[in-house]
Amino acid sequence: MPRYSAGFVTQSDEIEVDRLPVRGELPAWLSGTLVRNGPAKFEVGAQSYRHWFDGLSMLRRFTFSAGAVSYANKYLQSRDYERSTSQNRIAMASFATDPCRSIFQRFLSVFSPNATDNANVNVAVLADRYVAMTETPMPIEFDPHTLETLGVFDYERDGLKVATTTAHPHFDPWRGVLSYATRFSRTSEYVVYAVPRGQRRRESLATLRVRKPAYMHSFGMTERYVILVEFPLTVDPLRLAVSGRPFIENFAWEPERGARFHVIDKDRGSVRTHRGEAFFAFHHVNAFERGDDVIVDIAAYPDSGIIDALYLDRLRAGYPIPEAELRRYYLRPGEEAADYDRLIEDSFELPRIHDEQVGGGSYRYAYGVSTRRETPGDFANQLLKVDVHERGVRRWAEEGCYVGEPVFVAAPGASAEDEGVVLSVVLDADNDSAFLLVLDASSFAELARAEAPHRIPFGFHGAFFADD
Ligand code: CO
Q1: Distance 128 CA to ligand 1 centre (A)
Q2: So what's the architecture of 3-23+105-114+155-466 in CATH?
Q3: What is the whole-number distance in angstroms between the Cα of residue 233 and the centre of ligand 1?
Q4: H or E element, residue 36
């Protein structure tokens, strides 16, 4: 078993601790809650989930106030969680695990809201509500202080019948929350929509018809455009309904299709498409406009093998994990070909930026996880701060430590893009424990670490909600 396998072991304890032991000094201004999401239960009864993405969601929070930090963790009480734990078996179909069901049930689960609501990927604010999200369109509301589950967030009746979506929405200062969803049918569609500020209704901005929809985990956004990058990992929608295989296993890698970059005008709904060589990605880092060019920074893999590498049996057996590279794609009007260059030598995943200050081409810093060059194929074991102007990096790493997505929090009244802290939940593999790491975002030096009361399985994403 690899050292990092403790990050894929179920954590059954749900606890609350008022004050964590802190080494170093937390900034006095840091006030608010970091909520993180991720799978933490990998078996139900005698059955095991097959893929990292399938595990049942556990919310974790670190709340900062006056130089101290408290902690709590709680399982999200989704319908899937409740059914599965009460029946003591895996009750609903997810990304790569499917309990034995008839074709008819499967048909219902793919084309109706009967699919899993195990919202284990991310958290966000939608219509002033805190929600946990996954790739089925059923966000689940929770209380960020108690981590109590409040139920499925219902969109107002908007007629948007979609099967899958992204857990990585963007925020557009004029239009509200922007996202997209896929409708599977004989002729499928990607629907780009907005949830206007304070409303619970999705408003379609553009639709793209597609014969074989691609698996896409996130998207890019600039002031004028939404950018959907269609990787050649595609599905025949009919196959999805009748194959009898779990969701993602119906998708096929078709590198000859290449990658398609759809640049969608938010005002007009018009689309221009660029093409590049085949690649795969989960995460867009950022996108911006430079004149009429659109620049897309993305954490790219040569192919979709990363999805296979994240099956739990492979992770636990220590198969080498493919590494993403940070690429910058150039989409120029009148040029169909999308070309790219690689920004840094280090691998790069789980990217975050200082969202609030980014606009136009002004963005300079990205934060992410990476694998040290001395340990190729290992799980993420260093944090990076990337200067995309200078193409330089700063690193944080410690022997035996595996790092989670770094979340940037701006200091109050910050004038520089990197004035603030970076927060990351770290697994200390040798001690079977975890801690919250606080780095100075500018120097990338450690300011403090707060020792968690137990081992915390690896999470995917999270957000910092400042106290108002
Ligand atoms: Co993600």
Answers
A1: 22
A2: 6 Propeller (2.120)
A3: 17
A4: strand 32-41
